[in-house]
From TrEMBL:
Gene3D superfamilies: Peptidase S8/S53 domain. The active site is at D178 (charge relay system), H226 (charge relay system), S396 (charge relay system). SUPFAM superfamilies: Subtilisin-like (SSF52743). It comes from the Bacteria. InterPro entries: Peptidase_S8/S53_dom, Peptidase_S8/S53_dom_sf, Peptidase_S8_Asp-AS, Peptidase_S8_Ser-AS, Peptidase_S8_subtilisin-like, Peptidase_S8_subtilisin-rel. Belongs to the peptidase S8 family. Residues 172-442 form the Peptidase S8/S53 domain. Keywords: Hydrolase, Protease, Serine protease. This is S8 family serine peptidase.
Length: 532
């Protein structure tokens, strides 16, 4: 899969005014460039080394804020909060193996190993296993048209309802793990965040020698705009153009670059895990990541297969599940843009992890799945994607919209757990409870989320209809001439979606082969037809 320029090309007039000082080209020496293309470094390919146990006497790597957050959510401090054994690290160093990143959650270190070192490490008594790190991280974005159309998504999710309630993500810490944040401090839509010092820390896991300013002002590849665009979709607000890009305009941010965008196959899974653990140590409870792993290994033997998008095969999904279950973190991740790739079609990892909120993308008018948006695997026992919203430009920019949505909920009630916030978002969506593997439970609605926060009873907008035979005609109350219909083989798995015409207030459905249920999407109402 190749990287494709994202929203920058069409948002540039709104995002950037002039160029930051100190722009430098990220040229790579030829010998290192060749090794990068092959998925290796001059010292060998990258691996996870999984370890047996830990030194229980080591101090915890958590800040007082993080410990307080755990106590608030009644989450225990356990061995996943203890660092990797220093004794084991020293033994690796003694044979010339230098750990790159340490994961206390996975009890593992990432390293580069020559074939000789691989053989040595595999024989060490404290080594449980060695796994190659996937070099196929893909930024989930697509090419786009000339004019930005972000305003419709703000209307679609009912952004004014949150504004009227005074919810702007204030006092909520948000982590953003992405490819780069070039020009973020000079972007028109983000100046308000930097003016109030709303970006607290910036860390580059690709090149840790870079300073805060280096990361914001150094352009290595066009991928370095990606995190800037994502940040704008979470919290962007451009008063000069009277455009609001995101909901969490008053949130506080911690930014991490984990992806280097100058190569097609990128083995930076350990960067992502390290960034997650860093944000956990700071007490960050809400994280957006618009990166995902799919196919495309430089070594075909290491390629992911669609069947491995099961929520537990990849270590990055294992880490995401630990974050959800043991650290109280709500991870919001792009579902992926492989919906039109017939050899793949499904979500990427870590969107497959049960504990994360995976976000798909819808059309603006019908609110059904836009073609590129990845679908949920039929083999999963749970629904993916979880919810969706409008984006012309890839699920990279639908995910941050819902991150802003989550921040508003967390501001309204800081005591909610990550799973409670996730539940509110799902229940606020317009198709709930009749979700499907195309758009999940549909588009979250701020009015419904506010009612749930206030413990108010939601209006009845879902009804069940039983049908026999091959056709049924239903009276439909809607002002829409064309509506969205999902024909399904069971309760959640879509056979096909259809744009159906309403005639004289009636809709006629024709049952297709293998169709067991049908969802009629009226936006303000959902009708579920069960064929008998």
């Amino acid at each position: 899969m190749t990287f494709r320029l994202s929203l920058f090309l069409c948002l540039l007039p709104f995002l950037v005014q002039g160029q930051p000082d100190g722009i430098r080209s990220g040229l790579t020496p030829p010998d290192l460039a060749r090794s990068i293309q092959n998925g290796t470094s001059v010292d060998g390919p990258k691996y996870w080394v999984l370890l047996h146990d830990k030194d229980k006497t080591s101090p915890l790597a958590l800040s007082p804020t993080a410990i307080a957050q755990r106590k608030l959510q009644e989450l225990p401090i356990d061995d996943t909060d203890q660092p990797v054994s220093a004794t084991y690290l020293n033994q690796l160093k003694q044979i010339g193996v230098k750990p790159i990143f340490q994961s206390r959650w996975l009890n593992a270190v990432s390293v580069r190993l020559t074939p000789q070192q691989y053989a040595q490490v595999a024989k060490m008594p404290f080594v449980n296993a060695i796994q190659a790190i996937d070099p196929a991280i893909v930024i989930t974005s697509i090419a786009k048209t000339a004019n930005p159309q972000l305003a419709p998504v703000m209307s679609q999710i009912q952004a004014p309802d949150f504004a009227q309630a005074g919810l702007t993500g204030r006092f909520v810490n948000i982590g953003v793990i992405d490819a780069g944040f070039f020009g973020a401090d000079s972007a028109n839509a983000l100046k308000h965040i930097f003016a109030r010092q709303g970006v607290k820390l910036v860390r580059d896991y690709v090149n840790e020698k870079k300073t805060h300013n280096d990361l914001l002002h150094t352009l290595e590849t066009n991928a370095d705009f990606h995190g800037t665009e994502v940040l704008a979709a979470i919290a962007g607000n451009d008063p000069t153009e009277n455009i609001q890009f995101g909901l969490a305009t008053d949130a506080t941010f911690y930014l991490a670059r984990t992806d280097q965008g100058n190569r097609e196959y990128r083995g930076e899974e350990d960067n992502w895990v390290a960034a997650m653990e860093w944000m956990d140590s700071l007490g960050v409870r809400l994280i957006n990541t618009s990166l995902g792993y799919a196919k495309g290994m430089s070594n075909p033997k290491d390629n992911y297969e669609p069947g491995q998008m099961d929520g537990h095969t990849s270590l990055i999904s294992q880490a995401a599940q630990i974050a959800a279950d043991k650290k109280g973190i709500l991870i919001i991740v792009s579902a992926g843009n492989e919906g039109e790739d017939r050899s793949w079609r499904i979500i990427s990892t870590p969107a497959d992890a049960q504990g994360v909120l995976a976000i798909g993308a819808t059309n603006a008018r019908l609110w059904n799945r836009i073609g590129y948006s990845s679908i949920g695997p039929e083999s999963l026992a749970y629904l993916k994607p979880n919810v969706s919203c409008f984006s012309l430009y890839g699920t990279s920019l639908s995910a941050p919209v819902i991150t802003g949505f989550a921040a508003c909920i967390m501001q309204a009630n800081p005591k909610l757990t990550n799973k409670e916030v996730m539940s509110i978002i799902e229940k606020s969506a317009h198709l709930y409870p009749y979700g499907n593997n195309y758009i999940g439970y549909g588009v979250p609605q701020a009015s419904r989320a506010l009612a749930l926060l206030r413990n108010q009873e939601l209006p009845t907008v879902a009804r069940l209809v039983k049908a026999t035979g091959k056709t049924i005609t239903l009276p439909i109350t809607t002002t829409e001439v064309v509506i969205s219909v999902f024909h399904k083989k069971d309760a959640t798995h879509v056979l096909q979606q259809e744009a159906a015409k309403v005639t004289n207030g009636k809709l006629t459905l024709r049952r297709s082969v293998d169709e067991k249920q049908t969802t009629i999407d009226l936006k303000k109402e959902v009708i579920e037809v069960v064929w008998e």
